[in-house]
Amino acid sequence: FQRLRRGLARSSSALTEGISSIFTKRKLDQSMLDELEDILLQADLGLDTASSITERLGSGRFDKEISPEEVRAVLAEEVEKVLAPVARPLDLNRGIRPHVVLMVGVNGTGKTTTIGKLASRLAADGKTVMLAAGDTFRAAAVEQLKIWGSRTGADVVARDAGADAAGLAFDAMQAARDKNVDVLLIDTAGRLQNKAELMAELEKVIRVIRKVDPTAPHDVLLTLDATTGQNAMNQVEIFGKVAGVTGLVMTKLDGTARGGILVAIAAKHGLPVHFIGVGEGIDDLEPFSARDFAEAIAG
Ligand code: GDP
User: Which ranges carry the SRP54-type proteins GTP-binding domain (predicted)?
Assistant: First the structure.
C-alpha cells in the first residue's frame, strides 16, 4: 500500500492541494462546488464520479463550513464505491488446463512486462507456466519475453520476428497441451496505427486458439498505461470490440498524475480490474484493491 501511495502521490497531490485551496473556512456555496468539480475532472475521475461527489457535499450543506479533510473523506468513499465492484482477482483456479490468457494492448502499455511479472507470481504459487511470444512483429518483444522466461523458469514458445502470429499461437496451444502446463500466457502485437490490420490479426489469433480449445482464451487481459489518461478509455472500447476483453491491468501507476482515469473507466465499463503495475521490476505487480486505491488517491 505504501508503494501505491507513493506511486499515486502526483495524482493525489493535485487533488488535495486543489481541495485545500477551495475549502478554506468559508461557508459552502455553489461556486466552491463548481471549482471542486473542475479539479475532479482535471484529475480524470470522470463526470459521473465528479458529480456524485459534489452533489453529496452540496445536499443540505450550503452556508455551513466543510473542512478539506471531510471533502477528502467523501472523495475516498465515492471512489471506493465505484471501484469496489470491479476489484476482482484473476481466477486461475477454475479447473481448466492449460488455462489460456491472451494479453492485449497498445505497444508500450506494458504487455510483455506484465506477462513476465504474472509468470513470476504464478511460479511462486507453484504453477507451471508457458509464454508465447506472439508479438512477432517486433524482434525486441520476442527477445524480452525470452528473458522473462529464463528469469521465471517458464517455457517460451517463439519464432523469428516477422513470423505469423496466429501460427505461433497455434504452436503454443499445442505445446502447452503436450507439456500439460497450468497456464499459457500469450503476448500479442499492439500496433494501433493500423486498426484494421490489428483487428484482423487479433481475430485470427483467437480463431486459431479456438481450433485447439473452443473454450479458450479463458481470459483476455488488456494492459492500460495510466500515464495516457483519456486514451486509455478509447483503448478499452477498441480492444473490447476486437478481442472481447475480460479484465484489465493498469500499468505505470507509479509516478503518474493521471491515475484517476481508472475510476472513470470503472464507472463507464465495469470491467474487472485484476492487477496494477507500480514499477518495472518483477515484483511490481499488485492485486487491485479498491480501498487502497481510493485512500491513496484521496491523499
Ligand atoms: P508492450 O509493448 O506493451 O509489451 O510494453 P513493455 O512491456 O515492453 O513495456 C514498455 C515499457 O514500460 C518498458 O520500459 C517497461 O519497463 C515499462 N513498464 C511496464 N510496466 C510498468 C509499470 O508498471 N511501471 C513503470 N514505471 N514502467 C512500466
Answer: 272-285
**Nearest CA to 87 among 249, 296, 257, 231?**
249
Atom of ligand 1 at shortest range from CA of 251: 23
Q: Which three cell numbers stand for residue 162?
A: 516477422
pLDDT classification of 196: cutoffs 50, 70, 90:
confident
Task: Give the burial class of 78: count Cβ atoms within 10 A of its Cβ; 0-12 exposed, 13-18 middle, 19 or more buried.
Answer: buried
Alpha-carbon span 29 to 27, nearest angstrom: 6
d(CA 142, CA 81): 40
pLDDT tens per residue, range 208-238: 999 999 999 999 999 999 999 889 999 999 9
For ligand 1, the distance from its centroid to the CA atom of residue 128, given in whole angstroms, is 24
Beta bridge partners of 99: 183
CA of residue 277 to ligand 1 center, whole Å: 9
SS3 category, 299: coil
Residue 161 Cα to ligand 1 middle (Å) = 20
- The annotation places the binding site for GTP at 105-112, 187-191, 251-254
Please tell me the predicted confidence (pLDDT) of residue 137.
85
pTM beyond 0.90: yes
Average pLDDT over every residue of 241-252: 96
Ligand 1 centre distance from Cα of residue 190 (Å): 13
Q: 136-176, pLDDT tens digit by residue? A: 888 899 999 999 999 999 999 999 888 999 999 999 999 99
Helices marked H in the chain — which ranges?
2-7, 9-22, 30-42, 47-58, 68-83, 111-124, 139-152, 165-179, 195-212, 230-243, 261-269, 290-298
Ligand 1 atom nearest the C-alpha of 276 is 23
